[in-house]
Write a structure and sequence with these properties.
Blueprint: E1 2-12, H1 15-26, E2 35-42, H2 47-57, E3 60-66, E4 70-72, H3 77-84, E5 90-94, E6 96-98, E7 113-119, E8 124-128, E9 137-139, E10 142-143, E11 147-150, H4 167-177, E12 181-185, E13 192-194, H5 204-214, H6 233-251, H7 255-262, H8 273-292, H9 304-323, H10 328-337, H11 343-353, H12 361-371, H13 374-388
Helix pairs in contact: 6-7, 7-8, 8-11, 9-10, 9-11, 10-12, 12-13
Length: about 400
C-alpha cells in the first residue's frame, strides 16, 4: 500500500461533469511527495461493483469516492484529509452524515451532521446540519455517498447492493463492523458543491428492504413497510412523455408548442431534474425570441443533449466567476461579448444556480457594452431593477 498516494474514484456517465469534476481535483493543493491519481469509471454495472474494481486497481492508501456532480471547492482538501486521518481510528469520513438514523431506513432526508453547498436545479444553497467544533470531528452512524474518503480498504457489498442506492450506508456500517470510526469533520465553509438536482430513487424500496434485513443490529427497531417510502411510477411516466414532447417540438423549431407543454406543471413542486432544466431552457428561448426576434440557445434541429450540456457549461462558467478562479470573470465577460452564451441563458442559469449572482452583473454589463448590444444592456438593467436589487444587499456600483 502506497502511503504517499491518494486516488479519487468516480462513476461517470456525462463527459461535461467528468471534465469539471476532474478539473477541480487537479486544482487541489497537493502536499510535497504525495501522488495524485484519478480513476473515472464509465459504464459501471453498479456503484459497489465499480468501487470494488477501482479499489483493487489502486495501491493508494487514501481513496476518495465521489459523485460526478460533486466539485471539491476546498483547495486544501488533501491537507485537511491527511490531518483527519492522523487519527488511525477514523476509517472513513464524509462531508454529510447522520446520527439517530430512522428505523424505516429512509435515510436521504436524515443527514443532520456536516454541510455541503448544493444545487437542486431551482436554487443554490447550503445543506447543513450540526457542524462539529473547530479542529474536531463528529462520529456518525453513516455518511452520504456524495463524497466518502477512506484510509483503509474494505470490500463494498456488491453482493447486496447492485444499483445506485444504499451503498454508502452499507459501507458506513461495514467500517463500523470492523471497529473503525465513521466521521464528519468540522468545515469552516462547505468543502464541496453537490450539483445534486432532484432525487430519482426508483429502486429505493428494494435497497431499503435489503439494508434493514442485513444490518438490523444498526437500528433500534428495524421494520420494513412498503408504505414508508412511495415512488410514483405513473407520474414519472407522465414526466418522461412530457419531456419527449417538449424536445420534439424544440427540435422541429415549434417553440410555441414547447412553451404550452411547459405550462402544464409548477417547477417548484416537480421532482424530475431533467424536466426542471428543460423548462428553464424553454424560458430562455422564449426570452430570446422576445428580445432578439429569434431563438439563439436552441436552434432548430439541435439535439437536446447538446443544449443540456450548454446549460451545464454556462453554470460551471458562472461558478468559476463567482469563485474568482480559472479566470472566471474574464471568461464570463468574453462569453457575453463574443455571444458564446446568450445573456438570457446566463441570467436564467445564474438566478437558479449561483449564490451571489448579483455580484456578477457588473462583469456581464461590461461584456454587453463591449459588444455594443443595447438589447442586452436593457435586459440586464431590467433584471437588476426587478429581481436583483429588491432582494440584494450588494446594490452599490451595480448600475
Amino acid at each position: 500500500m502506497n502511503e504517499q498516494k491518494i486516488c479519487f474514484i468516480c462513476c461517470i456517465n456525462n463527459l461535461v461533469y467528468e471534465k469539471e469534476c476532474r478539473r477541480y481535483i487537479e486544482d487541489l493543493f497537493v502536499p510535497e511527495g504525495m501522488q495524485l491519481e484519478i480513476n473515472m469509471l464509465r459504464e459501471a454495472k453498479s456503484m459497489t461493483a465499480a468501487y470494488n474494481e477501482a479499489m483493487m486497481q489502486s495501491d493508494a492508501k487514501y481513496k476518495v469516492y465521489l459523485h460526478q456532480d460533486v466539485l471539491i471547492w476546498n483547495q486544501n482538501f488533501i491537507f485537511d484529509m491527511l490531518d483527519i486521518f492522523e487519527n488511525k481510528d477514523i476509517g472513513m469520513f464524509g462531508v454529510l452524515g447522520g446520527n439517530d438514523i430512522p428505523d424505516d431506513g429512509v435515510l436521504y432526508r436524515s443527514w443532520n451532521i456536516g454541510m455541503t453547498y448544493a444545487c437542486d436545479t431551482q436554487d443554490a444553497g447550503i445543506k447543513q446540519g450540526e457542524n462539529p467544533k473547530p479542529g474536531s470531528y463528529q462520529e456518525v452512524e453513516a455518511i452520504d455517498g456524495m463524497m466518502m474518503a477512506t484510509q483503509y480498504d474494505i470490500t463494498w457489498r456488491e453482493d447486496l447492493f447492485q444499483g445506485w442506492d444504499f451503498y454508502d450506508i452499507s459501507q458506513s456500517f461495514e467500517f463500523r463492523k470492523q471497529g473503525y470510526v465513521v466521521a464528519v469533520p468540522y468545515q469552516k465553509e462547505p468543502w464541496c458543491m453537490h450539483d445534486c438536482g432532484r432525487s430519482k430513487l426508483q429502486a429505493y424500496n428494494q435497497g431499503r428492504k435489503i439494508l434493514l434485513q442485513e444490518y438490523g443490529t444498526f437500528f433500534q427497531n428495524p421494520v420494513f413497510k412498503e408504505e414508508d417510502f412511495f415512488y410514483n411510477k405513473e407520474l414519472k411516466a407522465v414526466y418522461d412523455k412530457l419531456k419527449e414532447q417538449i424536445v420534439t417540438f424544440m427540435v422541429q423549431g415549434d417553440i410555441m408548442y414547447a412553451m404550452q407543454c411547459c405550462e402544464q406543471y409548477d417547477d417548484t413542486s416537480i421532482m424530475d431534474s431533467g424536466l426542471s432544466v428543460l423548462k428553464k431552457l424553454i424560458s430562455v428561448c422564449e426570452i430570446e425570441y422576445q428580445l432578439y426576434g429569434r431563438v439563439q440557445t436552441w436552434s432548430k434541429g439541435e439535439k437536446y443533449s447538446l443544449i443540456n450540456n450548454k446549460y451545464l457549461q454556462a453554470k460551471f462558467l458562472l461558478w468559476d466567476a463567482e469563485l474568482k478562479r480559472n479566470e472566471g470573470e474574464k471568461r464570463l465577460k468574453e462569453a457575453v461579448e463574443q455571444n458564446i452564451y446568450s445573456v438570457p441563458l446566463l441570467v436564467v442559469v445564474g438566478i437558479h444556480n449561483v449564490f451571489h449572482f448579483e455580484e456578477l452583473f457588473p462583469v456581464m454589463l461590461e461584456g454587453a457594452k463591449a459588444k455594443n448590444s443595447l438589447r442586452d444592456l436593457e435586459y440586464l438593467h431590467f433584471i437588476i431593477d426587478q429581481i436583483i436589487l429588491p432582494n440584494s444587499r450588494f446594490s452599490e456600483n451595480i448600475h
